[in-house]
Amino acid sequence: MHGYMAVGRIMLHTGTVLYVAAVLTALAGIGFWQKKKKGIFQTHKFLALVTTLLFLLHWLIPGALRNLF
Q1: H-run or E-run covering 20
Q2: Ranges of each domain in the chain
Q3: 3-state SS, residue 45
Q4: Gap between the Cα atoms of 42 and 63, Å rounded
Q5: What was the pLDDT predicted at 3?
Q6: How far apart are CA 50 and CA 1, in angstroms?
Q7: What local confidence, expressed as pLDDT, does residue 62 receive?
Q8: Closest of 21, 60, 63, 67 to residue 44, by C-alpha
Q9: Max CA pair span of the chain
């Protein structure tokens, strides 16, 4: 929401990528909770790490994707 307010439109930026990673992490957590499979838990832990790193990127360098494209 704050990204839309700052930019004035929906666009790909670090916050959008962070949001997608957080949703995927939550879905993997729900999947593990339902299925109790070790592989899903490993995926959930990996996605949690990715989400944490993306949060740090978004917090420290919010315009990082703008520099790439």
Answers
A1: helix 14-35
A2: 11-68
A3: helix
A4: 30
A5: 66
A6: 21
A7: 86
A8: 21
A9: 42
Structure tokens at 23: 């949703």
Q: Which two tokens stand for residue 12?
A: 């790909």
Give dist(CA 7, CA 4) in Å, integer: 5
CA of residue 14 relative to chain centroid, distance: 9
The angle at the Cα of 62, spanning 53 to 23, to the nearest 5 degrees, equals 50
> Which residues of the chain register pLDDT less than 50?
none
CA dist., res. 65 & res. 52, Å (int): 17
Indicate the pTM of the whole model. 0.83
**CA of 40: how far to CAs of 3, 18, 46, 49, 52, in Å?**
31, 20, 10, 14, 18
Cα separation, 47 vs 26, in Å, equals 9
